[in-house]
Amino acid sequence: MSAEATGPVSPGAPRKRVRSRLDLRRLGRAAMRGSASRGRLPDAIGHVVEAHRAHYPDAEIDALRRAYVLAESSHRGQMRKSGEPYITHPLAVTLILAQLGAETTTLVASLLHDTVEDTEVTLDQVRDGFGDEVCYLVDGVTKVEKIDYGAAAEPETFRKMLVATGNDVRVMSIKLADRLHNMRTLGVMRPEKQARIAKVTRDVLIPLAERLGVQALKTELEDLVFAILHPEEYARTKALIDENERGRTPLAAIADDVRNVLREADIEAEVLIRPRHFVSVHRVRMKRGELRGADFGRLLVLVNEDADCYGVLGELHTCFTPVVSEFKDFIAVPKFNLYQSLHTAVVGRDGGDVAEVLIRTHQMHKVAEAGVVALGNPYAQPVSEEPAPDGERADPTRPGWLSRLLDWQQAAPDPDTFWSSLREELSQDREITVYRSDGGTLGLPAGATCVDAAYAQYGEGAHFCIGVRVNDRLTTLSTALRDGDTVQILLAPRETGSGPDVEWLDHARTPAARIAIKSWFAEHPDRREAPESAEPRPGLTVAGARHSAANAVVDLPGASVRLAGCCTPVPPDAVTGFEVRGNVVTVHRVGCPAVGRMAGLGRGPVGVRWVDSASCRVTLTAESFGRPHLLADLTEAIAVEGVAIVSATVEPPTEGRVRHTYTLQLPDAARLPGLMRAMRKVAGVYDVSRAQHRAAATS
User: Fold this and answer.
1) 20 C-beta neighbours (distance < 10 Å), count
2) Structure pTM?
3) DSSP secondary structure letters along 259-294
4) Within 13 Å, how many C-alpha atoms sit on residue 243's CB side?
């Protein structure tokens, strides 16, 4: 099908001519239904100019005409596999972008996008004739030479395009339009090649179109892939759509009622019926089973101002019965791909059919359809040189997911790792935002854990992560994060930290974290399995082991000895003991409150003496004023003293004060006074004491 073909008007839609913003979707729908003939592109560049001036009436088209002349002359004599002159391909790609509202520079580069790859034209010639911007865009979409990269040519081409997209998002816009036209004409290729291209489109290009917000391209690509990879399901879905369109859709009656309601409320709005594309119909059928007439489309209400969106919502919820569970506000909280709209669903006045309704402004609709393409030339206006608080570019053409991708791709050791990691990254279809303790933010894919947050914030420095606080509570590194969580990563000093655990690979969800962890173990193969005799690493754990009493001897033959957890005695404390069940003697400091309670119950003391000053455990409580990085600083002070942290807890802040409780393994009890002095020197700490927990009388 030629790129300028148009499809029939949707059932129930207004008879007046709709602006070019919807033409591409209709064009794609007609392509899938096979209702248009393949004709030559009349007047060649004329269709592109007409579509371009629908968005830019005053556009200067001299560069477009010159680009067409160069493209036509350089591709002259080349034919596509379909038998058409090759020039029809860059023209069709450029028409797609023109209909989306791309600015002139993008269209010029689109006309020339295959010249350097497939003809004798060089990048220098493109630069001399059309400038640096066009040259950069053409180079960005030019494939790497297969003779140089062999089987790695495809992943390396995508790596090259993604890096170029990081500096100019228009590179990927051209690539998406290029793939769309190639998918439209894929039928002339062998079935196995069709399937291979369709799978790459499904795994990489469609997710990229979604992330860049170019829904008009994404939906048609989904339908084309669906037809190739699932022909039977596609045929069944097509038959259902054809059958539904032969009758009058219930949405037409509901649309008329909505128009009347908004007219009476004096709200200027355009109400359209928006047919679902093939994949969307298929998904609804899989979810609901038998389809009803209203399931084949949604109502689209377009207004002029943001406030009108909420006015429309109020009228609909007042005059119709709303389905409350279907309401979503993507205007107040836009999606990460720039998408804004109100979503709701209402029951028709006959009480039978439920219509889904999308409410947005005309500008929101333009962005919803064309995504970053609707930004025009996002680099025409100077962007603030001040970095965003989270270190990412402030302008919307460099979203967080792209920054993350560009970061980890540099560390991907080989094309296979890059290719598999890219598909894994793009399979995440939702993003969350978490807040750092220093006030910055981190954008992460949904399902990311504390391990992912650590590597997103600190890179390779996260190898020395010893714990994490989420919303002011200590938690495990495997904890999955939710949108809006506040995360504080706790790091040990590099000289005392021992690197990541193997288990972190099970917790990591992002390629950046997994690649960094795997790289560390590749450099430290001996650390993949921790030796059984290893000393406890200075870190935070959730384990609570019983205290060793090897250096305490009691005057009760055959009795087991246990150091009391309520006061954690160590040499040279004055101690006493009490026999409890099981022929066990618990050892307490003489001043421990539990000693008085035991004596009050008539328990006789058992003599205890220290035999040496060997390694021992002790529990210390640090009272401090709350501040960022306090726990990390205390951990560092403890590690510097050569003491291992067995476990740690932090109580929720009260009136700006925080209590930290540590169970510590001392190599020598004589180090305890020096350790407590070092902890008191940490800024914000005003007291460090031996723990005095309430103990049961039977302990």
Assistant:
1) 16
2) 0.63
3) HHHHHHTT---EEEEEEPPHHHHHHHHHHHSS--GG
4) 9
Confirm if 299 and 313 have CB atoms less than 8 A apart. Answer: no
Q: Which of 117, 395, 651, 668 is catalytic?
A: 117
The SS3 assignment for 666 reads strand
402, 166 Cβ separation under 8 angstroms: yes
* β-bridge mates for residue 361, sequence order: 303
- DSSP three-state, residue 563: strand
Nearest to 437 by CA among 399, 377, 389: 389
SS3 for 531? Answer: coil
- List, as one string, the DSSP characters of 490-515: EE--TTT-----TTHHHH--SHHHHH
Smallest CA-to-CA distance from 412 within 594, 200, 158, 205 is with 158
Q: Are residues 143 and 157 in contact, defined by beta-carbon separation less than 8 angstroms?
A: yes
Catalytic, out of 50, 72, 84, 118: 118
* pLDDT, tens digit, 9 for 90 and up, residues 599-611: 777 777 888 877 6
CA 187 to chain centre: 34
Does 655 have pLDDT greater than 70?
A: no
Buried b (16+ CB within 10 A) or exposed e, 615-654: bbbbbbbbebeeeebbbbbbbbbbbebebbbbbbebeeee
Per-residue pLDDT, 9: 33
Q: Are 265 and 232 in contact (CB under 8 A)?
A: no
H or E element in which residue 342 lies:
strand 342-347
> What's the mean pLDDT when you consider all of the chain?
79
CA distance 58 to 45: 17
Could you give the CA distance from residue 255 to residue 568 in angstroms, rounded to a whole number?
Answer: 75
Long-range contacts of 43-51, Cβ-Cβ distance < 8 Å, separation of 24 or more:
44/68, 44/72, 44/87, 44/91, 45/91, 47/4, 47/91, 47/95, 48/91, 48/94, 48/95, 48/98, 48/107, 51/20, 51/23, 51/95, 51/98, 51/99
pLDDT tier at 14, thresholds 50, 70, 90: very low
Output 5 or 250, whichever has higher pLDDT: 250
Rounded-to-integer distance, Cα 259 and Cα 357, Å? 13
Task: Kindly write down the DSSP assignment for every residue of 200-266, as one continuous string.
Answer: HIIIIIHHHHHHTT-HHHHHHHHHHHHHHH-HHHHHHHHHHHHHHHTS--HHHHHHHHHHHHHHHTT
State the Cα–Cα distance between residues 86 and 75, nearest whole angstrom: 6
CA dihedral 9, 367, 512, 424 (to 10 degrees): -10
Q: Does 232 participate in catalysis according to the annotation?
A: no
CA nearest 13: which of 255, 228, 260, 361? 255
Over range 346-360, report the average pLDDT: 88
Residue 321 neighbours by CB distance under 10 Å? 14
Closest to 444 (Cα-Cα) out of 462, 432, 436, 428: 432
Q: Where are the alpha helices (DSSP H) in 296-374?
A: 306-319, 362-370
How many whole angstroms separate alpha carbon 307 and alpha carbon 305? Answer: 5
Amino acid at 446: A
118 is catalytic: yes
Rounded average pLDDT over 468-482 = 84
Amino acid symbol at 307: A
DSSP at 92: H
Residue of 589, 593, 563, 560 whose CA lies nearest to 576: 589
Model confidence over 164-190: pLDDT tens digits? 888 888 999 999 999 999 999 888 889
Interstrand relation of 616-625 and 354-361 (parallel, antiparallel or unpaired): unpaired
